[in-house]
Each structure stands twice: as structure tokens, then as C-alpha cells.
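Appendix B. Chain record.
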Amino acid sequence: MKLETLPSDFQKALPLLKKIKEAGFEAYFVGGSVRDVLLGRDIHDVDIATSSYPEETKQIFERTVDIGIEHGTVLVLEDGGEYEITTFRTEDVYVDYRRPKSVSFVRSLEEDLKRRDFTVNAFALDESGQVIDLFDGLSDLKAKVLRAVGRAEERFSEDALRIMRGLRFAASLNFDIERSTFHAMKTHAPLLEKISVERSFIEFDKLLMAPHWRKGIEALMETRAYDYLPDCQDTFEKWQSLLDETDEKFSFSSSEQAWAALLLALEIEQPKAFLKKWKTSTQFQQAVDSIVSIYRFRLSSDMTKPEVYRYGKDLIWQAEELRQAQGLSVDFARIKHLDADLTIHNKHEIVVNGGLLIKELGFKPGPQMGGLLKAVEEAIVLGYLANDKEAIFKFVKAESSK
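C-alpha cells predicted for this chain:
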């Protein structure tokens, strides 16, 4: 198969391929970007594979950075762009179900492509637009099938993260997983316990944000891979409830919203503790925890100004979207109205702070002043007090004299 025209991202990188070929080596576009072009999807990263060894690649280009030279990857800075150029390689035995003991650089494109995970990720594309398909990936693309390159058992025992990648690709591409590949994923799912939680989170997060996330969750359930993810053991029925109770057409608007929905389905009482085991950031934990708290609050109460002020319109909106997706009553207009009616949206907008109370009213730092500032904040939020210096001073004097 030959592409009539190359996408602009590839055309921009063509001079690099030509330079490598002029130096006497082979060079191709490889990986997911080739797959996405064939599917008519937008491409994001352009990866180049070459028969030139890293030191040879560095001699071809003036500006390079050794970002992963031990694995054959050199970052080339050319014409305002950054391109990862990786030497064809084979890999030794995998010592921890994730990393090969060593890699060997080779001159053969076929040797390089046959170590890839799935046939639809094992394409190469030359500078003329010719697609090189050594593993019948084009047929799998047409059939919308995800199939491991070579023996599936070997691919997943080499790198167990490929199981999570397979689930993610099913969700993002809306592909079915080929029978023997699926069986190998299910058989090797226990190896996910050997994979770093951070890497599993990245793949699972992409799955949740994919347009066909339900398909990915269904495959996760069938493989029982969830049993080997942090705090997700024996949760089949809860995953099923997530699917049953959420509108089939619903897509998550943010990672935070997606994980909040997941935690609600799993009935996690301590969201921050759960997400900490997934090695997520404190900021992410706080946002997800807030959406979960808002959702649970809304099960019995309407939103009021203090809640809108505390959590912010954006997170409340996301919680309301989850309610809508689950067939519960929503009131987006009320949220919008309460937010617009707030005099301040955070305490830093208050025109008086502790420094002014010390300087102009003679207060001393301590619990009393902290309590007064909190009372000022609450009164402004509730609309009892104007965000005005003189009004606040009068309020503070009255409160402090009680």
C-alpha cells in the first residue's frame, strides 16, 4: 500500500529521512503515527527508526541530545522541530516483565518491527509513502482487530504493560481483541502486579478518556485484569454497575471526572488514600476527592453558595455531568447563577488581610485573628458583608468585642 500524499507532520520530517539515507542508512516513520494516518486520525508524535547506530546518527545531524542513547534513541533538533530517532534493535530476555536485560542494535527493519506489541503498531512508512506491513497489520486495521505481533504469550510475558495498552487501544480505536491475543492477556494478567503503578495509571487513564471507554472496561472485566490493580480486587459487580448506570453515549470531560466516577462505582470511602496508591499527584487527588464529595452531597441536598465557593463551579459542573449521565436530576442553571452571585471566588480577593488588621487595627497574629478572617470570608460569601475595607473593619471590630 502506498499513500498518495503524506500528512504535513511527516512532510516536515522528510528532510531527516533523506539526510539519513544520503549517509548510507535506512530510515522510516514507525509506530502509532503511521497507524493513525492509515485510520484517518490526527497524529501527534512522529517517530523515526533507522539502521544507523546512535553515534552514527549523531554524526549526521548538528544538534542532538542523548535522551535514551542506551536504548538507541537520539533526540534530533532540526528546522525548529524535535524528533526522536531510534536505531533498529532487538531485545534480550525481560528480567522484570517490563524491561529487557539488554538491547542489541541491528541493521534489519524486520528484526526491529517484530518486537513491537500489536500488528497495527508495527508498520513502517518510507519517504515515498510506501507502507511496509510485515505482519498483516493492514488486514487487522480493516477488520478492526487488535492482534499481538508473533506469539501473544511472548509479547505479554516480555512486557506485561502491553496488557493495559491492549485494553487502552480497544477503547481508543474501538477495536476487538483477537481471540488468542485476548486469551494471552487474560492468562498473563497477574503479571500486572510486577508493573510500576505509575505506568499502569497512564494507560488506564487514557482508557477512561477514550471515546469507547466502555469497550475498554468490558475487556478489563473479561480479563479480570482489575484484580491486579491497586485496591480493585474482587470488584467485578462494581465495574458492571459503572457500565449499567452510566449513559452509553457519555464520555468523560476530564481525567478527574473519570476517576471520580470510577471511585463512586467502586464505593471507595477514602478517595485520596486510594489515589495515593496509584501514585497520583496531590493536586489530582484533591480534585477527584472534591468531585466525589460534591456528588455525594448532591444526593441529598441542593447546591448553595458556600459549596459553590468551596469547590468552584468547574468541579461542581463535572459532578453534575455525572449525575446527568446516570439519569439523576440536574440544575446547571442554579450552579451558574450561584457562581455569578458570589462576590468573591477565593479568599485572596478579599480587600483586607491579616497584615492590614495588624497594621491598621492593632491585632496580633494568632487564633483570634485567624477566626476573624474566617468570619469575614464566610460573611462575604453569604452576602452579609460587602467586600469593602471600611465595612470589613467595622465588622471585625464588632466581632472582636463580643
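Further analysis of this model is presented in Appendix C.
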